[in-house]
């Protein structure tokens, strides 16, 4: 009986060792096999950031969009070099703690849709993937007057540089 037990134990050890060796070789062969990842040419790429540089690809709509962090919340912006200031929709301003009263809408603003009133405000900071700009003047407009938040020159002018080339926007602090 002991002899049969020893024979079975040796057989299990030999088979187990062979199985481990085979599995190890199979995994090494699989690791050497290149994996092809197919990405459609028009698929949007994630923003690229290194240190204090952020690179954005132009969107399908022809604009550059980015999620910024304000007061711990993510806020979507379209980058607009033609906007003198950062412009927030009233609902997004409220989500980051800016709630102007009707009497605060004292700034007359000329837009493509005509003249409207806006409420001046100040943001402590705006953060974009490693880039942080402090003390940013903003204007708050009603949601009906503005479809998207605009990241304008009151933010961009505080960067070391920004440039647009070959369908990419590079911001560097």
Structure description:
Residues 8-20 and 33-41 have low confidence and may be disordered. The protein has a 4-stranded antiparallel β-sheet, with no helix packed on it. Strands 5-8-7-6 form a 4-stranded mixed β-sheet. It has a 3-stranded mixed β-sheet with strand order 3-4-9. It has 2 domains: 1-36; 48-172, Cathepsin D, subunit A, domain 1. It is built from 3 helices and 11 strands. The protein has 173 residues and is an alpha+beta fold. It starts with a helix and ends with a strand. The longest helix has 31 residues, at 2-32. The chain is globular, with a radius of gyration of 29 Å. The chain has helices at residues 2-32, 90-95, 153-156; strands spanning 48-50, 53-57, 65-70, 73-79, 86-89, 107-111, 114-128, 131-141, 149-151, 161-165, 168-172.
Summarize the structure.
The protein has helices spanning 2-32, 90-95, 153-156; strands spanning 48-50, 53-57, 65-70, 73-79, 86-89, 107-111, 114-128, 131-141, 149-151, 161-165, 168-172.
Query: How many E strands?
Result: 11
Main sheet characteristics: 4 strands, antiparallel
Main sheet: strand order? 1-2-11-10
Radius of gyration: 29 Å
- What would you say the CATH architecture of the largest domain is? Beta Barrel
Query: Could you name the CATH class of the largest domain?
Result: Mainly Beta
Question: How many structurally independent domains?
Answer: 2
CATH superfamily annotation of the largest domain: Acid Proteases
User: What overall form do the CA principal axes indicate?
Assistant: globular
Measured as a percent range, the helix fraction is 10-25%
User: Which class do the helix and strand fractions yield?
Assistant: alpha+beta
Unreliable stretches (pLDDT < 50, length at least 5) are 8-20, 33-41
**Portion in beta strands:** 35-45%
Could you tell me the CATH topology label of the largest domain.
Cathepsin D, subunit A, domain 1
**Number of helical segments?**
3
Task: Kindly report how far apart the N and C termini lie.
Answer: 79 Å
Order of helices and strands: HEEEEEHEEEEHEE
Mean pLDDT: 81
């Amino acid at each position: 009986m002991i002899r049969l037990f020893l024979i079975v134990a040796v057989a299990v050890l030999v088979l187990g060792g062979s199985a481990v060796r085979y599995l190890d070789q199979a995994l090494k062969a699989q690791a050497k096999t290149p994996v092809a990842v197919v990405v459609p040419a028009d698929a949007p790429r994630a923003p690229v950031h290194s240190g204090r540089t952020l690179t954005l690809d132009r969107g399908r709509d022809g604009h550059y969009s980015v999620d910024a962090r304000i007061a711990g919340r993510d806020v979507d912006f379209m980058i607009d070099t033609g906007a003198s200031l950062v412009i927030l929709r009233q609902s997004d301003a409220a989500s980051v703690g800016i709630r102007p009263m009707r009497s605060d809408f004292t700034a007359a603003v000329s837009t493509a849709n005509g003249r409207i009133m806006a409420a001046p405000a100040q943001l402590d900071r705006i953060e974009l993937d490693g880039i942080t700009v402090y003390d940013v003047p903003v204007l708050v407009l009603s949601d009906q007057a503005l479809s998207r938040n605009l990241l304008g020159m009151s933010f961009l002018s505080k960067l070391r540089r920004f440039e647009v080339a070959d369908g990419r926007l590079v911001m560097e602090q």
